[in-house]
Amino acid sequence: MTEQLTPGPGPAGPHSVALDLTGRTALVTGAASGIGRACALRLAAAGAKVRAADRDAEGLRALQDAESGGGAQPYPLDLTDPDGLDAAEEAAAGADILVNGAGAQLVRPIEEFPPADFRRLLTLMLEAPFRLVRGALPHMYEQGWGRIVNISSVHGLRASPYKSAYVSAKHGLEGLSKVTALEGAEHGVTSNCVSPAYVRTPLVERQIADQAAAHGISADRVVSEILLAHSALKRLLEPEEVAESVAYLCTPEASFITGASLPLDGAWTAH
C-alpha cells in the first residue's frame, strides 16, 4: 500500500492569502500622490488604520476624503526639514507597518548637480527612512511583529546617468533595508524593498520633462528611447500594481520574505 502523506500548513495548503490587516496601524510617507497614495488606499482597504505623511497638505486632505481612504489620519510633514524628521520619527511610534514612499528626482550631470539638492534628496530618501525605521522599531520589537516596506527603485539595483542623488539614495535605501532585516529577524520584523521601474506618477512626468531638456529630445522620445529602453514590457507601471506588492509583503504569509528586493521592472534587471 502506498503511504498517503497529509499536506502540512504553508503555501501548498488550502488557505488563500487574505489581505486582512484589520487592527494594524500603517504609516505611509509620500501618501498625497503617486505610489504612496496608492499604498495608503490599498492598506486602508485591507483594514489598516493609516497614518498618511506628506508635505502636500491639500493632497492629504483629498486622501482623507477619498471613499476608499478609510479616514486616513493626515501628518503634514516636510521630511527634508530637521523638525519634520523629528516629527516623523515620533509619528512612526506605535506603527505596525511602515511604508517609506516619499521621493523626489532631479536630473542633472554630476558637474552641474547643485550640492544643496544632492543633500536634500539624500535626506528625503535615505535619512528620513532611517529616522522612521528608528521610530517604528521599538513598538514592533515589543509586540514581536512588524512590517517595513521601502519603496526603492530599479535605480536601487542599476545606475543611470544624470541621476547621481537618486541612484545614491536608492542604493543606500536597499542597504538600510537589509540591515534592518538582519536586526529585526529575531523580533518578528521583516524589512524589504519594492523596486519598480518607471511608474505612472507625477514624479515620472516631471522626470520626462527634465530628461527631454537634458538630452535635447522630445518627451515621446524620452519615454520610448530612455525610460522603456531596458524594459521588456513596453509600458509604464501603474501605482496600484506597486501597492498590491506592498500589501502582500505586509501579510502574515510573507513572514519569510525579508532582506529582499522585489523588482517590478518588466525584466529590466534580467539583462
TrEMBL record:
Task: Give the matching SUPFAM superfamilies.
Answer: NAD(P)-binding Rossmann-fold domains
The record's keywords, sorted A to Z, are: Oxidoreductase
User: What processes does the entry annotate via GO biological process terms?
Assistant: monocarboxylic acid metabolic process
The record, for PROSITE patterns, names: ADH_SHORT
> Which molecular-function annotation in GO is an example for this chain?
3-hydroxybutyrate dehydrogenase activity
From what superkingdom does this record's organism come? Bacteria
Q: Does tRNA processing count among this protein's keywords?
A: no
Entry annotated with the keyword Membrane: no
The record's InterPro entries line, in alphabetical order, gives: 3-OHbutyrate_DH, NAD(P)-bd_dom_sf, Sc_DH/Rdtase_CS, SDR, SDR_fam
Cite the Pfam families for this sequence: adh_short_C2
Stored NCBIfam families = PHB_DH, PRK12429.1
Q: Which family is this protein grouped under?
A: Belongs to the short-chain dehydrogenases/reductases (SDR) family.
The protein in question is named: 3-hydroxybutyrate dehydrogenase
Q: Which organism is it from?
A: Streptomyces abyssalis
